[in-house]
Amino acid sequence: MPSLEQTCDIGGSGELSAPRLRNDTPERAGLDPEELRHLVQEVRDLTDGERPWAAGAVVVAGRGPVIAVEEAAGWAVRYASYDPEADAGVELPPEARVPATVDTPFDLASLTKLFTAVAAVQQVERGTLGIDAHVGAYLPDFRAAAEHGITVRELLTHTSGLRPELPLYDCADDAERLERLRSEPPVGVPGTHTYSDLNPLLLQHLLERITGRTLDVLVHDGITRPLGMTATSFGPCPGAAATEDQRRPWAKADRGMLRGVVHDENAWALGGVAGHAGLFSTGRDLAIFCRTLLAGGSYGPARILGPDLVELMLTPPGVGFAVDQPWFMGKLAGRGAAGHTGFTGTSLVLDKATDTFVVLLANTVHPRRRGPDSRPRAAVGTRVARAVRGT
Length: 391
Hints:
Layout: E1 9-10, E2 16-17, E3 22-23, H1 26-29, H2 33-46, E4 56-63, E5 66-77, E6 79-83, E7 88-91, E8 98-99, E9 106-107, H3 112-126, H4 143-147, H5 152-156, H6 174-183, H7 198-211, H8 215-227, E10 233-234, E11 242-246, E12 256-259, H9 265-269, E13 279-281, H10 283-294, E14 298-299, E15 302-303, H11 307-314, E16 322-323, H12 326-329, E17 338-342, E18 346-351, E19 356-362, H13 375-387
Parallel strand pairs: 3-5
Antiparallel strand pairs: 1-2, 4-5, 4-19, 5-8, 6-7, 9-13, 10-13, 11-12, 14-15, 16-17, 17-18, 18-19
Helix pairs in contact: 2-13, 3-7, 3-8
């Protein structure tokens, strides 16, 4: 079946523009309606029961410029607190709960890293950043990165050797946090993969140094504003789905029930704008993001990246993106699918081979964090893969 992306509109400037998303039937998207009905029911099931996988969830799936599924289930806010004695959430009375809707923003957690990566690759495209340049060339005061020859590409591919995280939330002030980042050496072998929040944090500092603009401004001006992603921004986001009753010992800070402020403790300590976490968004806005990348960097009349740079990001091993990871993509993995997950229960996958995308937003950490379980994410990916016709 030819890709629906092959259809394009003529913009007012006379230039070709990529088609915008529209809601339509699964059949018009080239997707099996029965498989998508199962997908919706399975997502609803994730929010049912006394101990659901997530209190609330939103799923958006489509092919080409067609959104074939846009559904919400469960609760954006279900619990008042977490009771450690009962190991259960203290439920709000029904009239005080807030249902999840397709317009509910969720804390994206590590999906923020994708936007930091796009912002970095935009600078590569403009020639202001060398992808194989040494970080020390831009940030000589980041002594450890400079001494060990860490490169921009290594930050983007999690091959710098930096440890997964630092307890910046326990630092006394911003000066101490910055000094920890400047002096942190690799603990692994550069060139080998170690997923680390420190990589996008260093990228944030690098981007802010070379552009003179903060990361939130770079994301807004370079990505969300041109794409019309009006529901996507760094917090605070008062209407967002609640996350965790954040208290020690299960969390790293004592902040109480969180809603509309970033869940990640390091991002919170850094003021809510961080390279690794801090963004809030909706399912539809992330569908626009997926559609833009599947269309080679364009959406409507806007272009945020050229096709060659998009290809760089989505080609193994992936720049910013994870590629072909069955543990959260299910059977969408295997032919070059790219995506990412977030600790709060978020994920997105886009599959170039079938021109298909799926976004799953959930607040799995409401009322408190649990051990990671990505089986539901993988099941969503598998269901969408089975829905694709003509493959």
